User: What shape does this take?
Amino acid sequence: MTTSAILKYALGYMRTYYHLVQHESDLHLAQQARLLPPDITLEQFHAFIAGFGDIQDDQVSPQYATSGTLRLSRLNMWAKVFLCRFQFYRINRQSGEYFARFYAPILFFLAILTVVLGAMQVGLQANSSSDDYYDSVALEKASLWFSVATLVCLCVIGLVLSFLLVFMQLRELVFAVKSVVRRRRGAAIKGAKKDLSP
Assistant: This one.
């Protein structure tokens, strides 16, 4: 990558910060997300970033000129593929937030299955009074197969979501244990150094 390309990326990145942090609340959000240092004031930030507001689209990388940066959700998706990591940056701080994104697709899927199974039930009931034995047997077999497949799909979805929840909880537990151990080791090392000092 050439120096001019790197400069265009850097200018685009800084211009993004200029546009994103305009108010005190924006600054607090950026500081909470650790994107900016906690001790900087809005006036200090504006004094630093003001020069990046005049940068034109032809001075930045096309990525920043047209559509901005990649969304964090996309980065997290590609992190699974290319970085072999669960996520690039953690968006959801609570497991409820993480699972909430699955509600709409699962409910839509369940609604479709409910309509199809209801239609099959009506068809089976209507065919039970029919004298055509072969059509009735084919519909019964198809309905039986579809209802079993539906139950299997629902069980798989339930197991996958349960596994995700257990995995996330275990990962949090491991992180908490490592943090406690690291803190205790640090305190023990400080205590040992204090005992050794004259």
